[in-house]
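agent> Task received from the user: take the single chain below, predict its 3D structure, and emit structure tokens. No templates, no multimer pairing.
agent> Plan: (1) validate residues, (2) run structure prediction, (3) serialize to tokens, (4) report one or two observations.
agent> Step 1 OK, no nonstandard residues flagged.
tool_call: predict_structure(input=
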Amino acid sequence: MIPENNLSDGHNGWATNANREQERLQALSDSGLRQSETIPVFEEATQTAAHFLEAPICILGFVEQDRHCFKSAVGLSRLGLMNQLAQTRQLPRTESFCTQVVESGQIVSIDDTQTLSDDAHRILIQDYGIRAYLGVPLFDGGGFCLGTLAVMDLIPRHFTSRD
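)
tool_result: status=success, residues=163
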């Protein structure tokens, strides 16, 4: 099923990417998920995913206009005690692999970040040593991808379809 926000309205043709992004950001704002309170089911989801996939790091977060904010995280201390990522629980949107998931609405799997050819994600790769990433989209009832549930590892690994 194609989410309604991806359908033509019959009068104006296909909505532009910018319009869809504004609608997605409004849906995120309307959801109330931008507030700072802890949501127990998110904590449970990150702990379960990290355990099931035997991944040292798992985050569940939402991509805002300029940043990716973590609502729940497991294992950020493995990136160094009192590291900035663990303290702020956010990244610039341009530095987060999760942005690709939100923009595509698809699962993103990176077995080895060292094979990436672009300079994006410098913070995760160079500063924190992230070598593998698997992120799945989190959709709201209107079909907007608001965020991701993602696991990361400090060593390269091959993610399977079972993962």
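agent> Step 4: summary for the user.
The chain has one domain: 48-163.
agent> Done.
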